Structures are given as C-alpha cells and as structure tokens.
Amino acid sequence: MNEKEREQVALFRYGLIAPLFNGQVDSKEYLKGLEGKVHSIPYYGEKKIAQKTMKEWLLNYRRNGFEALKPKKRIDRGNSRRLSPDDQDQILEIRKKTPHMPVSVFYEQLIERGEIQKTQISYSTIIRLLKKHNLIGKQMLAIPERKRFAHDKVNVLWQADLSHGPYVPINGKKTKTFLIAYIDDCSRLVPYAQFFSSEKFDGLRVVTKEALIRRGKPTILYADNGKIYRSETLQYACAQLGITLAHTQPYDPRAKGKVERLFKTIQTRFYPLLQTDPVHSLEELNERFWNWLERDYHRRAHASLDNKTPLEVFESQLKDITFLEDLSILETIFLKREQRKVKPDGTISIDKKLYEVPSCFIGQSIDVRFDENGIYVFEENKEVAKAIPVSMKDNAHVKRIRSPFALTQSADVKGEQDHV
C-alpha cells in the first residue's frame, strides 16, 4: 500500500467518524445505524465495520490527528509469507473491479501483476477466498448515498456552491467569470466569495482559505457533487482541520437552498449595477462585489432572520466561534498531492513538465505536493526540499562528475591497447 492509498483509507475513516468528532449525532444511535452496513473502502473493498473499530479510530484521531487514521506501514515487504489479511483485502479489491472474469484467468493475472507468487499461493487458495466473499460472478454493492445535514448555529454549517458570473475584459478579450462562495447556514453571512476566470480547484482553495481566516472554522462544509468539492485535496484539508465535508445529491437545489438564494440576490441586486457602470477587469469586478457584500448584503435586514442583518446575527455569537490558532497550516494542507518516482537523472514529471529534485532522492518514490506557486518534496508530512523546473539550456553547461565505472572501463581499454 503506497502513501496515496494510505491517505485514501484515512479519508474514508475520517468521513465515518467526523459526525461523532463534531458532535453532530447521538453516538449510540449513529453507531447502531452503521452496524451491519457494507462500506466501499478504498484499497480494502466492500467490508462491514464494527462499532469498536470506529470508536478506536475516533480515539486515535482525537489523540494524534489525521495521521493516526492511516493504516500502518508494512515492515515485512520483500519477505516470503502466507496470504496475509492485507493481501486478501488487496485481492478482493482487484476482484471487485472484474467480478465476471473466470477465476482461472483472474489467478493468472494476479501472478502477472506480481500480487502473488505461484509457488506460494495456489489456485485453490484464491478460489476459496473468492467463494467466501461471494465474489464469483457477483455484482458489487452500491455505495450508500449521503444525507443532508441542517443546523441553526453560527459556523456549524457553511453551504458552498459555484455560479456563472458576468463577462469581463481580460487581456483585451471578453471572458466568462465564475463566482465561488460560502454562506453561513444560520446567519446568511458570506464568509468569503470571489469571482474567477475558471472553475478549477485553485479558486476554491483561495475562497476556503480566506473564509477560514476571516470568519473562523465551521463544523460542516456542505456542497454538491461538483468535481472541485469532491477533490482529495479538499477532503484532506477538512480532515486535518476537523471539519466534516458533506455532499448533497446532484441537481438538488433545495438541499442547498440558502446559497442558491444568495446567488439569486446577487443576480437581482448586484449585477444590475454592472449594467449601468460596467467593470473593466476581473480585479475591479471583485473589488466592487466585496464592497457591495459588506455595505449592502451583510447590513440589510432579512425577513428570515427576524429582520436582523446577517452581520448582527453572526456577531451576536462571536464568543462561540473557533478561529484558527496557527494560520500557517493553511499554506500546506491545500497543496495537491501526488506520488512520483525520481528518474536516474534526478527529475520528476508534473503536468507534463520536468522538475529537478536533490540527487539523494534518485530511484525513490517521493511524496510531491504543489500549487501554482511551487512544487515541494515532503517526508513524514514535512517539507524537505523544493523541486525546480528543468532548464535544458543551463544543464547543457553544467560540469558533470564522471562515473568511477567509466574511468575503470577507460583504463581497461587503454591497458588492452598498450598491451597490443
């Protein structure tokens, strides 16, 4: 199991215990409701989870954070052994991707992939394992759908969404914009929102970081099934911060009605201002939007808030808001994460571009984290080096150290020539 797979397992475990950790549910009823259910677990496949196991995960997370939810690294890699529980789980996970493949063919593929050795694991062992788990010609079970949460206290629930914005001039060309926003479910206050020229995760990262800095930490982030809200980066960040990431069903506007209502308000009260006085850049659009948000929207009485303003309701509960003590954590938890094997020339490839890392990593599989500002090498969750773009022109003039083997070969050849 590589580091990415360990993180995916940890994210799944956090998803189960997050409602317990954040006090969203009655622990006894919640655990009883999960008892007997089959879960689709990354790497391990379909399994039932005991209440005792979930309680242990919760205890470990409270004591040592997200890292404690990762499966322990194996220390017997490379040694001969019988089919261990981890090996069984891996084989079952592979099988569920091809449930109708003849077992004889499946067995041969396991050998070809290096999952098992024919001299150690027999065909009968594999077929007994598959029969035990009803994986001979059986369909995979469906993943249970998520259910909606609803809360009425400040910073318990933030709804998130993306909306299409107006066209603005960017580099002399009319470009479509996208508004990414959070809204507090209780006060209707907008923790942060911003227009961007694309729908990529980079925008959500900016909005989430700013919202956390300005308005504190929510218990739950509630979003739809859009790609950026399903990203592993967001899942990992929420797990590190102790935030529950919940999702509604696709195309279900009623489930996130408050943020939908916010967008409608923006369309009817803010966009008309742009028609009479157009903006000339993306920066100007955001400046005017933020001014409108603070001076108009946040200070206008809402009928649903007993004619109080969003700012009044939010500030009335400031004593209950949890602000981040160490803002520096936001610089690393939102980095994209990949595993890369360093080539013999000390390079790795990210987004089809070559980068150099220190030579001490040659031949190793490394944990790479990156954003638009840089690419970094991490070990044990700490940054240890920075990757730099490869410059073919500069490398052509770098003085190389000749290999000692090359010197030996040259000497041998010269010796043979002298002998002749």
From TrEMBL:
<dbReference type="GO" id="GO:0003676">
    <property type="term" value="F:nucleic acid binding"/>
</dbReference>
<dbReference type="GO" id="GO:0015074">
    <property type="term" value="P:DNA integration"/>
</dbReference>
<dbReference type="InterPro" id="IPR009057">
    <property type="entry name" value="Homeodomain-like_sf"/>
</dbReference>
<dbReference type="InterPro" id="IPR012337">
    <property type="entry name" value="RNaseH-like_sf"/>
</dbReference>
<protein>
    <submittedName>
        <fullName>DDE-type integrase/transposase/recombinase</fullName>
    </submittedName>
</protein>
<dbReference type="InterPro" id="IPR036397">
    <property type="entry name" value="RNaseH_sf"/>
</dbReference>
<dbReference type="Pfam" id="PF00665">
    <property type="entry name" value="rve"/>
</dbReference>
<dbReference type="Pfam" id="PF09299">
    <property type="entry name" value="Mu-transpos_C"/>
</dbReference>
<dbReference type="InterPro" id="IPR001584">
    <property type="entry name" value="Integrase_cat-core"/>
</dbReference>
<dbReference type="InterPro" id="IPR015378">
    <property type="entry name" value="Transposase-like_Mu_C"/>
</dbReference>
<feature type="domain" description="Integrase catalytic">
    <location>
        <begin position="140"/>
        <end position="318"/>
    </location>
</feature>
<dbReference type="Pfam" id="PF13565">
    <property type="entry name" value="HTH_32"/>
</dbReference>
